[in-house]
Amino acid sequence: MTPPTESRPLLIWWICLGAIALIVLNAVRAWPEVDRLLFLSDNDDLMRLVQVRDWLGGQDWFDTRQYRVLPPEGISMHWSRYVDAGIAAVLVPASWLLPMPQAELLTVVVWPSLLACLMVLLIGLGTNRLFGALAALGALVVFLTWGKLRGEFTPPRIDHHNIQMLSATAVFYLAALPGRFRLFGALAGVATAMSLAVGLEMLPVLALIPGYMALRHAFDKPGAGSWLLGYGIALAVTAPLLMAGQTPLAAWGTKHCDALAPPVLALAATGIVATLVPVVASGVLKGPLLRILTMAVLVAVGLWLSAPLLTPCLGGPYADVPPEVRTLIESRMIEALSAVELIGLLPDMLGRSLLPPVILLFLALVAALVLWSRLDGAQRSALTLACLVALAGLTVALLQIRATTLMVPALPLLGGFLVHAFLRIPRSSPWRLPAVLVLAAATPTAVEEAVSSVLGRAAGTAPVIAEAQSAPARSTATCRTAAAMAELATLPPSTLFSSLNLGTTILAYTSHAVAAAPYHRSPDAFWNGIAALESKADMRLALARSQADYLVLCAGDAAKPYAATLLGGELPDWLTEVTDDRHDFRVYRVDQTRLAEGAP
To answer: At a CB cut-off of 8 Å and minimum separation 6, what does 511 contact?
Structure first.
């Protein structure tokens, strides 16, 4: 019998090809309805498409401002052109064969599918190296069945989160795998720099992994020092180059807290020095205590020296956002809510996001305790790192649900380890059948379906949940259609004032500018789409400040108090309804003269 951990090259390649075939099948199935899916997609997907169009249309590589939000100045975007370049690498050749609208639809299918295939190879081959081909199959089942993870790699997801997950997963496996440590470390350093260049959401995991390797070196674990040496040098070279490659020279000194900029470079430099000094001076620094103490001192000194850069960023990416807008972001954006808040508002979403990783982590910890003495050093190290990453991600996710993505690099490996543990149970054992049932019940799809079934029934008896989940008969989703956008396209070129979740759709499907979009570098654009719809005074102020030409409201979407008043026909004399024969939208012309005169 072939040992469970023995690598079987032919089998693992068939497994990976099978997973890739499923991805291709999903892409083919998505193609007939990709237009509708894109309309209903995340704001970031639509804005990314707009950014790519602008760049290909002549906007400078270093200029990522979105000039059609609050024109003429536009708003600053902290997004990376490297993602635009990857998408364009698919879009431009597609446009040689197809009309541009169809080429764009093909691109939003192909791009996330390509990234999903890379993720399959990374997870499958990495898990196979550690625990065998059948364990790799288990890891890929987690990737393909956990909605939170799978959903980031399906059409039409073209925002930057999937690239960050792919990069962080690469760093994880490059740290977990035994072998060419210095090369793996250097590749991990490059992947870390790329992830940071794209965005900072995975920063906690990207800091935890080299920290773990530094602790391994402190205890003289084989290869850890070589890995850190390759990692530190590669990160020190690549990160500044990637920053320079997407940031104009005049802005190199700008202390942005939400992008690869001097504060992040200072943090990276501190980590590089703190982890490499014990490696270089390992002949002098003998024993784990002295090495750990040296690292701690160097980290403290580095943070002290970097304080002028890092202190303004202690408030996170919203450090420079006015308090009232920060409150809106932290209380109105679902992804920014804590687990405690979501229990009462969206328990189904909370359960589907957190229960699958929690169950996988718990079962993996139990299995690891049982099998620990039968695992080799590389397997123990990989499992330890996976559990640390999952626990760190879970801890942060309890504070903000969007941090669930921090667990992504580790969970497939934990799922693969559970299959490895099952294979260790003798076929004659009475525990084998219960173990099969537990494995089946622990798959993310089974957990998500169970959560939906239980909480779906409970919602009917829980008033607080029913109230939180209730929605008007028609919402902004009703207006995210081709027909609705065609109604707005008939207006003369204008700046349209809309709710927050319609701004990016209007940008993507019309030639109009907008006054509202959900991006924190523009507090006004964020505030306009939420607070301005809640009172007459705020609406008046926002319309005057944005110099909007028209206010457009999705008919029937009365979720905001003042929007409901306007839809009910109670109009101030600085608004005139010009809806005409439109059905999906109510359109109001803004009289900026009356606003300037202080008309009531």
So the answer is: 489, 493
Q: How far apart are the C-alpha atoms of 559 and 533, rounded to whole Å?
A: 9
Both structure tokens of 362: 């718990």
Contacts of 45 (CB under 8 A, 6+ apart): 38, 108, 156, 157, 158, 159
Torsion, Cα 312 318 320 325, to 10 degrees, reads -150
Q: Are 527 and 518 in contact (CB under 8 A)?
A: no
Q: Are 228 and 217 in contact (CB under 8 A)?
A: yes
Peptide bond into 72 cis (omega under 30): yes
User: What single string gives the DSSP state of each residue in 331-372?
Assistant: HH-GGG--HHHHHHH-HHHHHHHHHHHHHHHHHHHHHHHHHG
pLDDT tens, 547-559?
Answer: 999 999 998 777 7
Cross-sheet strand order for the sheet of 575-577: 513-514, 495-497, 550-554, 585-590, 575-577
Torsion, Cα 358 156 135 434, to 10 degrees, reads: 50
- Taking alpha carbons only, the member of 212, 213, 175 closest to residue 191 is 175
Taking the whole predicted model, whether its pTM rises above 0.90 is answered as yes
pLDDT at 293 over 90: yes
Q: Which residues of 380-415 are buried (b: 16+ CB within 10 A; e: fewer)?
A: ebbbebbbbbbebbbebbeebbbbbbbbbbbbbbbb
| Residue with tokens 């975007």, as numbered in its chain | 77
List residues bridging with 586 in a β-sheet.
553
Tokens standing for residue 202: 């995975």
Tokens 């525990």 label which residue? 431
- Across residues 495-524, what is the average pLDDT? 93
What count of Cα atoms within 13 Å lies in the side-chain half-sphere of residue 356?
Answer: 33
Nearest to 578 by CA among 496, 473, 476: 496
Characterize the bridge pairing of strands 495-497 and 513-514.
parallel
Dump pLDDT digits (tens) for 108-137: 999 999 999 999 999 999 999 999 999 999
- Which of these, 4, 112, 2, 97, lies nearest to 49 by C-alpha position? 112
- Which residue(s) pair with 348 in the sheet? none
